[in-house]
């Protein structure tokens, strides 16, 4: 991307649903070095003094946040699988949050819906989000749509996103998400952060 300039004081890096299990084992993520690229991007954002944020989908024991009408999550409620309530517990250890960085547990796909993330961003005059994570068809798509409607400027780091279906990732990046966000690479994002 030729014109990728940011103001570091009004830009946040959002590492969304960067689950240890998915990003550490999913062939789509492993083959493209998603974890290492995200580590480098996170380090650049921290070094630049940018706001770094994280989200992960979590629930209380018994899953009281899940309605039987919710097609995405209702199967989890009836699975017998124990609920995890601490978002940090499921984030990949290589990109774990530091003290003082914003971490939100979410109960839906979208990182901004029903969480304190939007309040934290607007409270710090953030108007631009650099977004990455798992899955492209989940948190990345849903958050992009919602954030765009909230008038955030959005950059999606395509090679730091992954999906269980690589062709879906490619389609969304190339045909859908680029309508509401600028699509960039990790190296482009690092360069923009360092020169911002």
TrEMBL record:
Family annotation (Pfam families): Isochorismatase
* Record Gene3D superfamilies: Isochorismatase-like
Q: Does the keyword Protein transport apply?
A: no
Record keywords:
Hydrolase
Q: Which GO terms describe its molecular function?
A: hydrolase activity
InterPro entries recorded for this chain? Isochorismatase-like_dom, Isochorismatase-like_hydrls, Isochorismatase-like_sf
* Keyword Ribosomal protein among UniProt keywords: no
On the tree of life, the source organism's domain of life is Eukaryota
Annotated ranges, domain Isochorismatase-like: 11-187
Family classification: Belongs to the isochorismatase family.
Q: What is this protein called?
A: Maleamate amidohydrolase
Print the organism lineage: Eukaryota, Metazoa, Porifera, Demospongiae, Heteroscleromorpha
């Amino acid at each position: 991307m030729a014109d990728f300039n940011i103001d570091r004081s009004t830009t946040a890096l959002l590492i969304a649903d960067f689950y240890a299990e998915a990003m550490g084992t999913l062939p789509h993520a492993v083959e493209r070095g998603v974890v290492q690229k995200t580590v480098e991007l996170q380090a650049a954002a921290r070094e630049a003094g940018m706001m770094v944020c994280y989200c992960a989908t979590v629930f209380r024991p018994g899953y009281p946040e899940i309605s039987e009408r919710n097609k995405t999550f209702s199967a989890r409620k009836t699975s017998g699988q124990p609920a995890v309530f601490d978002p940090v517990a499921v984030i990949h250890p290589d990109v774990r949050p530091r003290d003082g960085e914003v971490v939100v547990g979410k109960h839906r796909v979208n990182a901004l819906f029903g969480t304190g993330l939007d309040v934290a961003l607007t409270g710090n005059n953030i108007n631009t989000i650099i977004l990455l994570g798992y899955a492209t068809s989940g948190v990345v798509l849903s958050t992009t749509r919602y954030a765009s409607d909230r008038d955030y400027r959005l950059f999606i780091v395509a090679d730091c996103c992954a999906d269980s279906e690589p062709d879906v990732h490619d389609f969304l990046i190339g045909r859908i998400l680029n309508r509401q966000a600028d699509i960039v690479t990790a190296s482009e994002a690092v360069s923009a952060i360092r020169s911002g």
